[in-house]
Amino acid sequence: MEKADRSPVTVADLGSQVLISLALGAAFPADPLMGEEDASQIRGNATGDIRAALHARLAELIPGLDEQTAEAALERCDDAGGPRGRWWTLDPVDGTKGFLRGGQYAVALALIEDGAVQLGVLGCPNLERADGRTGSIFVAQHGRGTWELALDGEADETRVRVAGICDPSQARYAESLEAAHSAQDEALLIAERLGITEPPLRLDSQVKYGLVARGDASVYLRIPRGGYVENIWDHAAGAIVVTEAGGIVTDVDGVPLDWTTGRRLDRNRGIIAAPAAIHGAVVAAARSVLPVRPG
Ligand code: AMP
Ligand code: MG
User: What does the H/E/C string look like for 115-133?
Assistant: First the structure.
């Protein structure tokens, strides 16, 4: 179906949120959860098909799961976040457009405590690993580094690090495939200012953060269009995956991401993720290219 903002939502988005909500609820019953999907989407007349398909698929995965329990798991993902306490934020399928076209998408979960991201888990089912097989999970814990695990369990976990470059002209940057999500023309101007000659890697979802964390891309540029304000669940897991791998993640003005403002990053605009050695140069180039921040 199409959401109010015209983005797509599928049985997979809703089902993933139900499954993760049930698992977190069992493990940490007291922890609130902020999930992207809103249970009201499966209420009402126009949604009979998706609701029935959701319950049919969930029943295959968890035999005996009743519809009330499943919908309560979806419904409880309405936490408002804020500056205090411990809560989780979930994007059950980030990059739904990528998922639908068979491209990149991610299941993104983060734990936030008193405004700081403590843990990030980024499942990337369509991402190729160094061993040539497909499917990675990035796990980052504050102070413990970032690790890449094989989704199929067929390889040992490896610690990943951002690209070891010191000269920004050597960078390869990643950006959204969807031109509506990031101003690709302005990103190109920033890249030119830095002397970057490699074309950008364009892909959906927070897999971009995974590529930066393991050095396949060195920079992630997300340049907002028309004052767009980012959602917390679109960045919390990815941001710690990059910072624990030796990167820095800020907005396009170099301002640290402020996780305390509710469901959206109200005090930030856009994203720049890069290795610590070149992040300052990338921010300086962005500031010279982009219009001055309003207000
Ligand atoms: P990406 O796959 O990196 O292009 O980002 C996907 C995310 O972009 C979705 O989860 C949406 O929350 C978000 N999004 C939707 N509309 C916009 C927009 N106009 N600008 C930036 N991000 C958006
Ligand atoms: Mg998303």
Answer: CEEEEEEEEEEEEECCCCC
Site residues for ligand 1, CB cut-off 6 Å: 7, 94-95, 176, 178, 180-181, 204-205, 225, 228, 231, 234
> Under 8 Å CB-to-CB from 129, ≥6 apart: which residues?
135, 136, 148, 150, 155
Distance (angstroms) between ligand 2 centre and the Cα of 207 equals 11
- Tokens 């804020």 appear where? 82
From atom 21 of ligand 1, which residue's Cα is the shortest distance away?
181
**Is residue 260 among the annotated active site residues?**
no
If pLDDT is split at 50, 70 and 90, which confidence band does 46 have?
low
Q: What is the mean pLDDT of residues 272-282?
A: 98
166 CA to centre of ligand 2 in angstroms:
31
pLDDT at 291: 87
